[in-house]
User: Fold this.
Amino acid sequence: MARGNIRAITTESIQDFIALYRVFEEELVNEYEKLSELGYVFGYYLDQKCVGLITFYCSANENGVVNPEHPVHYDNPEKVVYLSDMTVLKECRCKGIGRELMEFALDTCKSAGFEKVYMRTLQKEQSMSYRLAVRLGFSVLENVEQSVVQERINSERDKQDMRIFLEKLIE
Assistant:
């Protein structure tokens, strides 16, 4: 199991965010600014190198409105956090880093007073984050899925894929 440290990614360390977030073709600085304004952006560091990333934020904005792009709705959205992104460098996968990031996010959410977390991921057979989330107690929201189209740097992956949603009570 890896033994690194998890710390906030700030504007001073934005290059760490950009290096790990390069899956999608989008303006990465703007994406970082949006995510950091909404909530939390943390990196996992081994020997001063950022090898993992997790982002999460309250599912409701300041007006109590849930992300309109998601087909998931809650009675108390201000108590629900959306696990937006998690990634680990390919060469560092299967070493417990994703699990440490996810557990860190859950602990942070609990400390902040959130009661539930939900996430969107690829279909079961395509996703390492799905398998990890299920091991950590997430359950699939039945009949809730979404087709997503994103421009990708890696042309081997389709631009469009089907996403499913999972949720977990924060205990």
In short: The longest strand covers residues 139-149. The chain has a mean pLDDT of 79. Strands lie at 5-8, 39-46, 49-58, 80-88, 116-122, 139-149, 160-169. The radius of gyration is 15 Å.
